[in-house]
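Hey,

The postdoc asked me to send both predictions to you directly instead of through the lab channel. I've kept everything plain text so nothing gets mangled by the mail client. Protein one:
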Amino acid sequence: MKVSEWMTKDVISITKDRSIQECVNLMKRHSIRHLPVVEDGKLVGLVTEGDLRQIFLASLIEDLTIKDVMISDPITVSPDTEIEDAAKVIFYNKIGGLPVVDEEDRLLGIITVADILAAFIEIMGVLKATSRIDVILGDDPEAFEKVSSLIRDRGGEIVSVGISGHRIRRKRVYYFRLKKCNVRHLAKVLERAGYQVVSSVA
């Protein structure tokens, strides 16, 4: 999935000559934490809620504008960036959002942690009425296909599959999310086939 499918397109922005107070008011009014700074439609900076917290008291005494506090070279992505790649950029840089720009730095949107979380929830089918079965597949390189076939042959319909980042007894856990079904029966089928079922959720 592309960033363009999940980004916020109607972006609230500000110009660099505005005051800190105007920026704070704009963020409060629209309940946002990231404010792109634009000039003639092009991205020239970014202001975050965290930045404003650090300088707000100083701005009451000094005549500061957005230009004085903005991130002048923010990390950006293109609308064709894969959502997984945008998630990695946000995670590794410990930031809350990314402006989305075209090749000429025109601001097209913004994608935030909340947008990416919504995308992954959709991909995983978390909010749908589903069942889940968690299985340790072992060392057989064909185990994934075998388990998937066993599930399908017994009437299970796989919605998504996740793999744990941690290991149980040095084995990775595969999380099979299925359309609502008799997951206990499937667990017994997999166990009889020699696979370790860690848990099942109807």
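Protein two:
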Amino acid sequence: MDRGEVFRALWTNPLGIRAMLWAKLPLAAFAGLRVKRLDETGAEVTLPAGWKTQNPFRSTYFAAQAMAAEMSTGATALYLIERSSARVSMLVTSLSARFTRKATQLATFTFSDGAAMRAAIDRALATGEGVAFVARSIGRQKDGTTVAEFEIEWSFKRRKDG
């Protein structure tokens, strides 16, 4: 099993992701984020509704939604980097969001442009320069209602030490 597959197995395993989140991203663990799907095409991250993620208006807090959207794009980037065995730094440089409906039930945030993200990472590796990539994540409730659309700009750059 290559590094990318080990990474994916950890992130998509219910116990593995819980342990990793509590160790590295405790706020995401507390909120109950789970990686439902992770592969070269993208990722799906679920965000439960309820008291841990609720705002005073009885819907899911915008920051919890942003965390799920970012994870759907960031997990994909990490997976693609692990598969390449390259040393790449990554950083969120911008975030914009549009909220279309109140999120009141389990929502799944989906990023599905892994091929374009892979091309941006490859360009960063080839040039040694920073490459910006805007990743779009859509949040939908169980009933299919779109609740939010996020654009997260990532900067990828080859690390000098690798």
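Summary for protein two, as requested: The radius of gyration is 16 Å.

Thanks,
C.
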